[in-house]
Amino acid sequence: MMSQPAAILGPQYCVPQVVDIAIVRKVMSLADGSFVVTDANDNILFKVKGRFFSIHDRRVLVDAAGNPLVTLTEKIMSAHDRWQAFRGESTDPKDLIFTVKRSSMIQLKTKLHVFLSTNTTNEHVCDFRIEGSWLERSCVVYAGESNNVVAQMHKKHSVQSVLLGKDKFMVTVYPNVDYAFIAAIIVILDGINKDDSGD
Q: How far apart are CA 156 and CA 36, in angstroms?
């Protein structure tokens, strides 16, 4: 486990215990905010607003009060499905927090690399990596190239969620890991895989 808290979007999202968050996606919704992130008691932590069907995929993660935390944009014409995350509603390079890209062009399983804006290795050494199967909602987030798990996804099927047309899965975020950052990564993961599945 990480020894020091890794505050990426904010220290208030780093807590000393495990945090279970639920990602609820309305399957048939084309409207704004078709993505909600709740805690284990169904309290809304974050919502995702965005233009999902425009040429330029852009999503904004907002807190429960509607304050924008991070803007996630897909970089058009990039070879490795590159996404960038900016502070608040900015898309200014000086407000870049992190970049996510596929580790290779052709992938059977999900494998993404996350580079924080403070990373000076010119994208040779990633700060976090995501591996697993998005289809099965079983991805794991690791710290850098290590085997230290910082977050893990689990699929949660229920008759109710199927009837309501919702896709719900749980993410366990380990202690002292920024759970808002993990939520932002999941939103990007969804964006990258939406392109693959054509859904």
A: 15
d(CA 149, CA 141): 6
Distance CA 51, CA 36 (A): 15
Question: Which residue in 55, 81, 66 sits closest to 32, CA to CA?
Answer: 66
Most distant CA pair in the chain, distance: 48
Q: Where are the domains of the chain?
A: 20-47+95-175+191-197
**Buried b or exposed e, range 158-186, using 16+ CB within 10 angstroms:** eeebeeeebbbbebbbbebbbbbbbbbbb
Angle at 149 between CA 179 and CA 152, to 5 degrees: 60
Stated pTM of the model? 0.87
The token duo for 96 is: 């870049």
Parallel, antiparallel or unpaired: strands 68-74 and 138-143: unpaired
The torsion angles phi and psi of 72, rounded to 5 degrees, stand at -110, 120
CA distances (Å), 142 to each of 27, 78, 130, 147, 177, in order? 28, 24, 6, 6, 11
Q: In the numeric block, which tokens belong to residue 192?
A: 């990258």
> What confidence tens digit (pLDDT) does each residue in 39-80 have?
988 899 999 987 655 556 789 999 999 999 999 998 876 666
d(CA 137, CA 101): 19
Cα separation, 93 vs 160, whole angstroms: 43
DSSP calls for 58-72: EEEEEETT--EEEEE
